[in-house]
Amino acid sequence: MKIFGRVRHRPSASWRQATDRAFTMIGDGRYEDAGALLTRAADLEPWLSESWFNLALLHKFRHDWEQARAAGLRAVALLDREAGAPDWWNVGIAATALQDWPLARRAWQAYGLKVPGVGAMGRDSAHLNTIEPVGMELGSAAVRLSPEGEAEVVWGRRLDPARVEVLSIPLPSSGRRWGEVVLHDGVPHGERTTTSGDSYPVFDEIELWAPSPVPTWVVLLEAATEADRDALEELAADAGYAAEDWSSSVRLLCRTCSESRMPSAEGGGGLLDPHDHSEPGHPGPLVHRMEGSLWVPERECGIAAPAGLVRGLLDSWAADSPDTRDWRDLEEVG
């Protein structure tokens, strides 16, 4: 097969050796050394799309999005398949990170996804404002925040193939807030299943894409019944913010369990999946909440709300049923 007048051939032994060594270095976190080897491999075999795909992958790991986009575009220019190539997915992630929306649309459409406003030839429709983000509304998914640290799996809403809006209230250790949008990788690591049998992928966060101005608070509730607890969550939602009973929604899991197919709880018209705190090397779950356990009135609750609203929200909740509700020890934590 000829590409730009040259015959495409199998990669040389030198190319394979340099590439293999580079990925070993990537696994060890030696990105600079790996970059030198992958650049050498690209010099050896510039007509191989794999040469540029590997460089784009490295730049993605380094969050060097300009370089990832450039290498990714060279990779897709050399592809010999029309759709479904992971090269296009990497281009889509880089374009999303850079807010290059015309390229992001082109990448997702070239991968084989249906993109609003993109025609059969992959061009934006004339009426589409190409400075706007890609809006695909792909439903619910889980995202693993801080996957290399104290990983926490939270629920969110997929805005497009590379972004999730966080709808759970993350714990302070994650460094994330309710309402933030995170850029995520394309290959899921694990699944969460609901009691209805629905299954949702778990994606790994790459980086924060859009911060949230809404602070996170922790408060101790006295809620005599589950209905009392639910009332606070509904009150916060009605105000446009969120409350979450961390006493019920948090489980500690080892990394192996977190990255596997795990059951989740449903409730409140949405998905209230436990946050999963992975501990590498731990043989199994540290804490497992048994179904049907007795209700404990004292609850640790996370609240996402502005400082000027949170106390009034809690006071209003308690005043609606003073005999069964109370709160104390409100603290801003993130």
Describe the structure.
By secondary structure, the chain is α+β, with helices and mostly antiparallel strands. The protein folds into 2 domains: 2-111, Tetratricopeptide repeat domain (Serine Threonine Protein Phosphatase 5, Tetratricopeptide repeat), CATH 1.25.40; 135-334, no CATH class. It is 34% helix and 25% strand. The protein contains 10 helices and 17 strands. Strands 3-4-5-6-8 form a 5-stranded mixed barrel. Helix 3 packs antiparallel against helix 4 (65-77), helix 4 runs antiparallel to helix 5 (86-97) and helix 5 (86-97) runs antiparallel to helix 6. The longest helix has 15 residues, at 13-27. Mean pLDDT is 83; it is low at 1-7, 125-129, 266-274 and 277-292. Residues 263-284 are annotated as: Disordered. InterPro entries: TPR-like_helical_dom_sf. This is Tetratricopeptide repeat domain-containing protein.
Distinctive features:
334 residues, alpha+beta, Serine Threonine Protein Phosphatase 5, Tetratricopeptide repeat, 2 domains, five-stranded mixed barrel, four-stranded antiparallel beta sheet, 10 helices, 25% strand, elongated, disordered N terminus
